[in-house]
Amino acid sequence: xxxxxxxxxxxxxxxxxxxxxxxxxxxxxxxxxxxxxxxxxxxxxxxxxxxxxxxxxxxxxxxxxxxxxxxxxxxxxxxxxxxxxxxxxxxxxxxxxxxxxxxxxxxxxxxxxxxxxxxxxxxxxxxxxxxxxxxxxxxxxxxxxxxxxxxxxxxxxxxxxxxxxxxxxxxxxxxxxxxxxxxxxxxxxxxxxxxxxxxxxxxxxxxxxxxxxxxxxxxxxxxxxxxxxxxxxxxxxxxxxxxxxxxxxxxxxxxxxxxxxxxxxxxxxxxxxxxxx
Length: 277
Hints:
Blueprint: H1 30-35, H2 43-46, H3 49-59, H4 63-68, H5 74-85, E1 111-113, E2 120-122, E3 128-130, H6 131-145, E4 151-155, H7 160-174, H8 176-182, E5 196-199, H9 210-218, E6 224-228, H10 233-236, E7 241-247, H11 250-259, H12 264-276
Helix pairs in contact: 3-12, 5-11, 7-8
């Protein structure tokens, strides 16, 4: 693999591979790629199976997702990707949103019951998470506790049937248009993956609490990622939710921050595309 070719080269479609401008330094700029400037063809790149797979996955992303990806070495990107995917169950990175529903009847097999403990507290008795997510929730809660912060788990795993009840309730309260900005239809909720948690008050005020601020600054260190950041409703389908985090693993959070502007949706869309190529 030619390590001098930056990642931006891979953000063009297959058709544009023959129209890449390569500067005297051997590097193609992101702007050149975006403009489709004529130039020489990097033959060695075209012959590398992983590079071809990477290019196809990247080219399927939205323009906003592509714009979030910084220039860099494709080999470094692939190394970081493999670290993120390693030692994770095949469904850890399921793309679950309004246009990508979970498989019919999906239910994690390794759910564990959550009870208040020395690391975190629960808001009610019928809460569950997947084993690895609970383990890292406990680690994160312990770290927060050392700084005088108590993490309150208000919602976690939701079955298809329960999510339908939640969504229907919000439709009755706020109307469908408003409900669709905040509540997922059954089968499209991250909560059904068993890896998502709503913390605290489940409203915007949580961002200004000590716990909310602590999570914003530290959750990624324990593999927890904010799912619906401010200013990305057109990307995620949901308005800002400062309380909703999804467990993806520490390496995945690093990968997300380094290569995808720290936007979970962009990374999950890429991994989904990567797995389908």
